[in-house]
C-alpha cells in the first residue's frame, strides 16, 4: 500500500518478490496504447481496428469477436479496462505492433525496464497462463504500483477503470451490444475514492488486484496477489 504523492510505503509484505500477475498485465498493454496515442501521429482513440482471425481465437475472459467486426481503439480499451477482455488486449497489441504480437510484447518488456518496475517478464499482452510457470507474465507488487501510477496520468484510462457497467456496440450477429461489467468489485461496492485499476486471476497467480484510490487529497495504490478467492481479494 503506497501513498503515491509522498512515495511513502504504508504497508508491505514481500513487495519485491516477482509473482504471476495474470490480467493485471493489461495495465501495461493499456499504458503503451495511451502513450502511443500521445506520441504517434498514426494512432488515435478514434482509429478503427479490424478484428483479425487470430484475435477472435483468444480464450478466457473475452467479448467474443467476429472477424467481420471493426472497433475503435477507445472501444477496445474500454473492453480491456472494464471487462478484462483478452481478445481485445490481443487485438490492440497486434495492431500497435504492426501486425506482429511479439513486437508489442518486446515493447512491454522494454517499457518495464524504462519504468524500473523490477524483475518483470511479459510473454503476452493479456496475462493468460503459459504452458508452465516459466511462461506466465510476472512482476512484483512494487512494480505493479509503479505501473499503475503511470497509467493514472491518462484520464480516459481512469474513466474506464472506474466504470462499473458499459456496453460495446456490435454490428455483426444478433446482439446489438455486449455488456461490459467491471471485474473490480471495489467499483461495484462504491468504496470511497476507488477509481481502478485492474484485477487478475489464473490458477498460479491466485486472485490479484492493483487498486487505485483518491481519498482525502491523497493518491493511493494497493496491490494484493495470491488470494484464494475473489471475495478475499476484494
Written overview of the protein:
With 234 residues, this protein is an alpha+beta fold. The chain is built from 9 helices and 11 strands. The chain has a 5-stranded antiparallel sheet with strand order 2-1-11-10-9. The protein has a two-stranded antiparallel ribbon with strand order 3-6. It has a two-stranded antiparallel sheet with strand order 4-5. Strand 10 and strand 11 form a beta hairpin. The longest helix has 14 residues. The radius of gyration is 17 Å and the shape is globular.
- Per DSSP E runs of 2 or more residues, the count of β-strands stands at 11
Termini separation? 14 Å
Alpha plus pi helix count: 9
Poorly predicted runs: none
Order of helices and strands: EEEHEHEHHHEHHEEHEEEH
The gyration radius over C-alpha positions equals 17 Å
Q: Beta fraction of the residues?
A: 15-25%
The assembly state of the depicted protein chains is single chain
* Estimated helix fraction: 25-40%
Mean pLDDT figure: 96
Q: Numbering strands along the chain, what is their spatial order in the largest sheet?
A: 2-1-11-10-9
Taken from the alpha-carbon principal axes, the silhouette is: globular
Q: Name the structural class.
A: alpha+beta
Major beta sheet summary: 5 strands, antiparallel
What would you say about this model in short?
The protein is of the alpha+beta class.
Short descriptors:
234 residues, alpha+beta, 5-stranded antiparallel β-sheet, 9 helices
